[in-house]
C-alpha cells in the first residue's frame, strides 16, 4: 500500500514509518524536516509544513492512507482533514494518532476531566478531544473515511511484542492497574488497521 505519514520525524511517527516499511509498504514521510530521515528502500521523504494547504493535498494524493502523527497543539488539525477532503475522488483514508485523555475511565467520565490527570498534558489532551469531536461530527454522507487510535495512558518507547488488547472508548488497564502501550506496539495496531479496516469512522484504543 501507499501510506503517507505526517509527523514522520516524531516519537510516534518514526515508529510508524519503521513498522510500515518493515511490512513492505511504500511510505511517504512528511514533516518540516522529513528529508533528514535516513534513506531506506520504500521510503520517500518530503519536507512540508501543514499550513501549506495545497502542497499538503498534493502530497496526500495517490496514497491509500494518511496517518497523522502531529501534536494537537501548535498546528490546526482541521487543515489535515480539509487537505484529505480536497484530494477529491480516491481520497486516502485518514488515520489519526490520538490521545488517551478522551478515553472513559468510568461511565460518562473522560480521564482528561478527572482531578488526577497530569496538568502538563492537559492542554494537549483537550485539543485531542476536540479533534475527535470534530471527526465524530462529520455528517453521515461525508466522504471522509477516518479512524482515531487512542493509545493507553502511558505511550513510551519500548518493545514490539505484537501482543496487546484493542478496545473502543474505555481506557484499557492491566491487572496491576496500569494503562500502557509501547510506541512500537501502538504502531503495530495502527498498521493492522491500515491494512484491514475494522474501525472506520470511529475511535478505538490499544493497551496491554
Ligand atoms: N498517552 C497519550 O495520550 C499520548 C502520549 C504521547 C503522545 N501522544 C500523541 O501522539 C501524537 C504524536 O506525538 P509525538 O510525541 O510523536 O509528537 P512529536 O515527537 O512532537 O512529533 C511531532 C511531529 O510533527 C511534525 N510537525 C510539527 N509541526 C509541523 C508542521 N507545522 N508541519 C509539518 N510537520 C510538523 C514534527 O516534525 P518537524 O518538526 O520536522 O516538522 C514531528 O515529526 C500527538 O498527538 C500526541 O498528543 C499521546
Polypeptide structure, described:
This is NAD(P)-binding domain-containing protein. GO terms for molecular function: oxidoreductase activity, acting on the CH-NH group of donors, NAD or NADP as acceptor. It holds the Pfam family NAD_binding_10. With about 210 residues, this protein is α/β, with parallel strands linked by helices. It has a single domain, classed as NAD(P)-binding Rossmann-like Domain (Rossmann fold, 3-Layer(aba) Sandwich), CATH 3.40.50. Helix content is about 30%, strand content about 25%. It is built from five helices and twelve strands. It has helices spanning about 10-20, 55-60, 80-85, 120-135, 185-195; strands at about 1-5, 25-30, 45, 65-70, 95, 105, 110, 145-150, 155, 165, 180, 200-205. The strands form three sheets. An eight-stranded mixed beta sheet has the order 3-2-1-4-5-8-12-10, sandwiched between helices. The protein has a two-stranded antiparallel sheet with strand order 6-7. Helix 3 links the parallel strand 4 and strand 5 (about 95). Helix 1 (about 10-20) packs across helix 5 and helix 2 (about 55-60) crosses helix 3 (about 80-85). The relative contact order is 0.16. The model has no long low-confidence stretch (mean pLDDT about 95). It binds NADP nicotinamide-adenine-dinucleotide phosphate. NADP nicotinamide-adenine-dinucleotide phosphate binds next to helix 1 and helix 4.
Amino acid at each position: 500500500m501507499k501510506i503517507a505519514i505526517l509527523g514522520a520525524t516524531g516519537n510516534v511517527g518514526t515508529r510508524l514509518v519503521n513498522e510500515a516499511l518493515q511490512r513492505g509498504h511504500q511510505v511517504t514521510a512528511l514533516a518540516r524536516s522529513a528529508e533528514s530521515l535516513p534513506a531506506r528502500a520504500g521510503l520517500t521523504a518530503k519536507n512540508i509544513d501543514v499550513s501549506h494547504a495545497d502542497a499538503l493535498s498534493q502530497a496526500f494524493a495517490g496514497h491509500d492512507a494518511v496517518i497523522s502523527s502531529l501534536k494537537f497543539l501548535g498546528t490546526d488539525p482541521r487543515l489535515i482533514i480539509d487537505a484529505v477532503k480536497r484530494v477529491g475522488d480516491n481520497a486516502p483514508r485518514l488515520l489519526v494518532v490520538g490521545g488517551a485523555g478522551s478515553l472513559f475511565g468510568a461511565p460518562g467520565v473522560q480521564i482528561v476531566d478527572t482531578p488526577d490527570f497530569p496538568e502538563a498534558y492537559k492542554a494537549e489532551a483537550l485539543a485531542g478531544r476536540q479533534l475527535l469531536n470534530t471527526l465524530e461530527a462529520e455528517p453521515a454522507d461525508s466522504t471522509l473515511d477516518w479512524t482515531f487510535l487512542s493509545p493507553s495512558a502511558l505511550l513510551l518507547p519500548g518493545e514490539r511484542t505484537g501482543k496487546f488488547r484493542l478496545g473502543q472508548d474505555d481506557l484499557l488497564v492491566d491487572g496491576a492497574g496500569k494503562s500502557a502501550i509501547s510506541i512500537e506496539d501502538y504502531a503495530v495496531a495502527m498498521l493492522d488497521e491500515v491494512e484491514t479496516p475494522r474501525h472506520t469512522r470511529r475511535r478505538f484504543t490499544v493497551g496491554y
